[in-house]
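User: Before I run my own analysis I want an independent prediction to cross-check against. Here's the chain; please return only the structure tokens and, at the end, one sentence I can use as a sanity check.
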Amino acid sequence: MVRNRFDLQLEQLDVEMIKMGALCEEAISAAIKAFLQSDETAVAVATEKESDIDRKERDIEALCMRLLLQQQPVAKDLRLISSALKMISDMERIGDQAADIAEITQFLKDNDTKSKVHIRDMAAAAIKMVTESVDSFVNKDLRLAKSVMEYDDVLDNLFIEVKQEITDLISRDKANGEFCIDLIMIAKYLERIGDHATNIAEWVEYSITGIHVKMEMEEGN
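Assistant: Structure tokens:
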């Protein structure tokens, strides 16, 4: 009976993680809409989603604490719950960075250059990574978690491409300087979102295998 209740609460944890992941996707999408379309409503949506993400983090944290304190989970369950606590911290940071992108867009002049750099592609890659990292947790899918880690290289390469595009813009017209600084900030936030999605995938790997490669590397140094 106790185990049945515990399993139901673990299922609820999965549901809440999916909801938080969806909020992250919505926040990034709204921020990029604000960027591409100079849409003030989208700025407000990204800000609102960040607040929703913060609330969801607190809800999941409380659920995890109840699971830890009331159920005395065995080793595998303990890994899963502790991993979820780490993951929601990364998701909260994703919400912050999406809101930061939206805030920058308020100061950007409307410029058709926006559509010429690969920031839209970076956003699509970042959303894919966030979605799949959370899916890998819910479905206990180690292969999907590893593919998210590998896909980070795609996002990093897009970031390099965007930096080159921005360098070319400045070299063609120095008047683009301030605009280009804002562009590079937005690209950097998207690159960081990819890093957080990678962190999530690494915690998924730990929850399934008990191995966290980065932690073991740090302990070995």
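Sanity check: The radius of gyration is 19 Å.
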